[in-house]
Amino acid sequence: MAKEPVIRKEQGYTVADMGPLDLLHEYTITSSAGETFSGKVWLKNRIGLTGTEISYGALPPGAKVPFAHRHHQNEELYIFLSGEGEMRLDDSSVAVKEGTIVKVDPPVWRGMRNTGTVPLVHLVIQAKAGSLEQSNQHDSEYRPLG
Amino acid sequence: MAKEPVIRKEQGYTVADMGPLDLLHEYTITSSAGETFSGKVWLKNRIGLTGTEISYGALPPGAKVPFAHRHHQNEELYIFLSGEGEMRLDDSSVAVKEGTIVKVDPPVWRGMRNTGTVPLVHLVIQAKAGSLEQSNQHDSEYRPLG
């Protein structure tokens, strides 16, 4: 049986336990063509996100995402946590590692490969471009700790 | 001078180098009251996000966020990368560590403290609740690798 995060839904919030980041490769996804890939977990449907789709990825050494893609509406943010790799962005290449963030506008063709010897661990965050109306103090109310 | 990520804006994408996650404490923010806090970096204005506000946090051992807050429009997602802590969610407490994700609906009062001996490293993602209209294959176009 495929590995699943442990999820607890409460009134107003949801808690998920994904397990250690160095075991992300135990998660698998199956493509519409029936191929299985390890090290990818999608969160939106699992925890009920309504403003983003977020995934964890752990691309194995030597592997690449097997296609390039671009978006119609959504801005994507790639946040790299460990490992070494390369993103292809239209006709350019960008080296990525722990601490690299790449924000990609919808129409740019993108791909990724692991150029190192350990998994390339990263998060990918999709949100509708232009959808954030306000944030931080403009969207918040504060109170002292009780 | 305060530490700043190294940022490169290109046509259609932006690359930021935040540096190693275990040096996040070198980033500082200053409150409107003039107090300085270490280990927090906001990304939206730095890299031009339009669908999310995202921050990195490295809450020091023994520290807590000095107030509780809630949101008007925005769903928040807390992604914990290392360390140990506790989130307060209205009248409940949730233990958090590497691999814990907490999705919080706008009206829930939230706070956080570090209960461990190393920094509590995490990401916080804000997006307008209900703003994601489509994602993944419903928002994407694919092509073979060139």
Structural commentary:
Two copies of one chain form a homodimer. Chain A has one helix and 14 strands. By secondary structure, chain A is an all-beta fold. The first copy, chain A, has one domain (6-130): Jelly Rolls. In chain A, β3 (28-30) and β4 form a beta hairpin. The longest helix of chain A has 4 residues, at 44-47. Chains A and B meet through β2, β7, β8, β11 and β13 of A and β2, β7, β8, β11 and β13 of B. β14 (140-143) of chain A pairs antiparallel with β7 (68-71) of chain B.
Features:
homodimer, 146 residues, mainly beta, Jelly Rolls, 3-stranded antiparallel sheet, globular
What's this model, at a glance?
The structure is a homodimer of 146-residue chains. With 146 residues, chain A is mainly β. Chain A is 3% helix and 51% strand.
Derived from helix and strand composition plus strand pairing, the structural class of chain A reads: mainly beta
Strand content of chain A: over 45%
Largest interface: A-B, 75 and 75 residues
CATH class of chain A: Mainly Beta
The largest beta-sheet of chain A arranges its strands as 5-6-13-8-11
Question: How many separate domains make up the residues of chain A?
Answer: 1
By CATH, the superfamily of chain A comes out as Jelly Rolls
Order of helical and strand elements of chain A: EEEEEHEEEEEEEEE
Q: What's the tally of helices of chain A?
A: 1
Largest sheet of chain A: 5 strands, antiparallel
In the predicted model, the low-confidence regions of chain A spanning at least 5 consecutive residues are none
Name the average pLDDT of chain A. 95
Percentage of residues in helical conformation of chain A: under 10%
